[in-house]
Amino acid sequence: MSIMKGFEGDVESYVNAPRRSGGKWVPHFLVEFDQENCISCGRCIKVCAGGVYTLEDEGDKMIVRIESLDECIGDMSCEKVCPKNKTMHLHKFAPLAR
User: How many of the other CB atoms lie within 10 Å of CB of 20?
Assistant: First the structure.
């Protein structure tokens, strides 16, 4: 499934969406997640508008996992709230490949 499925309009208009300031916003989509160093705090799940993440029960603990990278809306909100990103950068992003 493409990130642009169902998008009606010019891809260039979406990728370079205007801001109120007049500048352009370029979304960066999640392409990789470092599960090994994640502390499973769940903050990314709470802020993700696309439903990319899910919590899975591993018996003695809950683990944050990727549900669907294709649902990422490119706002990088997960990176902004991740307490581990201050030093480890668990989330890797890239602009939309056209």
Answer: 5
Which segments within 47-90 are labelled E, that is strand?
53-57, 62-66
Taking the model in full, what pTM does it have? Answer: 0.71
Q: Are strands 28-33 and 24-25 parallel, antiparallel or unpaired?
A: unpaired
Residue-wise DSSP of 21-58: TS-EE--EEEEEE-GGG-----HHHHH-SS--EEEEE-
Max CA distance (Å), the chain? 50
Residue 84 has phi, psi (to 5 degrees) of -80, -20
| Model pLDDT for residues 31-80, shown as the tens digit of each residue | 888 888 999 999 999 999 999 999 999 889 899 999 998 899 888 999 99
Q: Hey, is 9 helix, strand or coil?
A: coil
